[in-house]
Amino acid sequence: MGSEVTEAATLGAAVGMVHRPAPDPRRSVPATQGSSTLGARGSGGGDQAATLRQLFAEQSARLLPVLVPDGAHAGRASWLAKLAQAFARQGERTLVVDAARLQIAAALGLRARFDLAHVLRGDCVLDAALLDAGTNLGVLPAARALEQAQSARLLRQLSVLCHDRFDLVLLLVPACACTDLPDTDVLVPVLPEPQDIASQCAVLRDADRVLAQRVDGPVTGQFRLLFLGMGQDAAATLSQRLVHKINMTGPMVFEFAASARVARDLLEVARAAAGWSTGRLLVRPAE
Predict the structure, then answer these.
(1) pLDDT for position 137
(2) pTM here?
(3) Best-predicted range by mean pLDDT among 72-81, 200-209, 219-228?
(4) CA end-to-end span of the chain, whole Å?
(5) H-type helices in 133-282, by residue range?
């Protein structure tokens, strides 16, 4: 418990060092803001804890894990960068957390100097590692952070760092990080090249095995297959072949999510994702 408190304090300091503009004194604060929370703080008891939990849950970011092979892949990175831009164009403050060394920053024309691990060690503030990729879109390299911490700790760190700053977190992860995922669907991008299909099948088998060994119970969700660079008919046929080929034994099943022949098709994918089951990066306030 003590280590979690220290970790939370460290992360809070990292976030606190981020420059935030001073509030405009000309803007009034509605009476409903602050009054109920401050009142609860004075009253104590269960009502205060319930109010805080509800407040933090409402402000927490949605989490959509994206299962990818570990390592750089220019084609996959390019497609996923465009998918992130599609979410951002819909008005969602979107953060891409690259914990799989996919080099998503390079695909967006950015150069990453720092990793989330540097923030956690106190080497830099969050805004130094957080890359601005345009309106409503940020990128945070985190492969080193995943190496140096369990995936459960990584999710806790992200929940604090992203709290009230982003609406959606696209978490690019290898199979080994699936063990600590909350209940959520997992997006699985598939490219048409035979080598990529074989690689993604291997990752799915690994993820299936990891999820089957979870000690906290099964994850409620689906592997949503997103076929990139191919039409609907070809994607549907390939989806059926993959289902039979992989023979999943864990708690999660396949679901054909969508296909995108060209980049503009990803806008429809982003809209369809509103109906998927996504997790939450919940910050647990002190009670």
Answers:
(1) 98
(2) 0.79
(3) 72-81
(4) 13
(5) 143-148, 151-162, 194-212, 232-246, 266-272
